Amino acid sequence: MLKIAYHPSYVHPLPEGHRFPMIKYELIRGQLLHEGIVQEVNFFEPAPADFDLITSAHEPEYCRQLLHMQLTPAMVRRIGFPLSAGLVDRELRIVRGTIEGCHFAMAHGVAFNVAGGTHHAGSNWGEGFCLLNDQAVAAAYLLGRGICRRILIVDLDVHQGNGTAEIFRDENRVYTFSMHGERNFPFRKERSDRDVGLPDGVGDDVYLDLLTHHLTMVFSHIQPDFVFYQAGVDVLETDRLGKLALTKAGCLRRDELVFHLCRAANAPVQVSMGGGYSVHVRDIVDAHCHTFKAAIRIFE
């Protein structure tokens, strides 16, 4: 059975000025239920992750400062959200949801977190609305418990997964792949195991040709026993921040390619939804819901 991590805190602790486009998390859940794609039983509400879990990928001092809301003003500005107890709880629940999703994925092929994909958080910093790196913590969890031996992180958000790359730069059991806008945030990039930087304006055909070429080689070379997929939809032509030009159909084909490669490799995949900043929230929700639909078709 498909399992999807969702909690009301994914939206409601956020300050008023930051509710859009974060309201998408609530709308994705509602749209999936409205269309009959999933039922209430498919959702689970994660508890907060504890200190031992988050320190598997983040430095203890940073985690202590975060949990006690003692981050410096400069770090809070770097994160972009005013710090609050509710916001920290939200982030801890997102991390736990991704970790639990790994177990569901191993049982059923694929699992989702409606939020997550917080890939700008590094080992000792938060950045770009990311306080903790949910998929990095989950990957470290799988390795630390001997559950997996070779993990692939596929990051297709329009922004490079700089935090993920930094956390695993010396970990050869995790292969980080990021295909992103070269001239987009973050302007100081970290080095992933494979980075594919794209010029502004790239559309469906070029994007999909490049992704097929690179990701097919990566799967063949790495042969992962688990995959994390950061499925940001800020690659859309309608996105205010993305600078690329994918259509919804092209974004769907991107998702289908990733899921087909995972299925062919017999590699379970945990999906976190990543970014999306289109002017109309309907475009964001539609593209994210297409990701769910593709997974259900391919893994059913």
UniProtKB/TrEMBL annotation:
Report the protein name in the record. Answer: Acetoin utilization deacetylase AcuC
Would you identify the family this protein belongs to, as annotated? Answer: Belongs to the histone deacetylase family.
Signal peptide, first to last residue: none
Q: Name one Pfam family in it.
A: Hist_deacetyl
Q: Does the keyword Hydrolase apply?
A: yes
Record-annotated Histone deacetylase domain positions: 20-289
Out of the domains of life, which is the source?
A: Bacteria
- What are the GO MF terms of this UniProt record? histone deacetylase activity; hydrolase activity
**What are the record keywords, sorted?**
Hydrolase
List this protein's GO terms for biological process: epigenetic regulation of gene expression
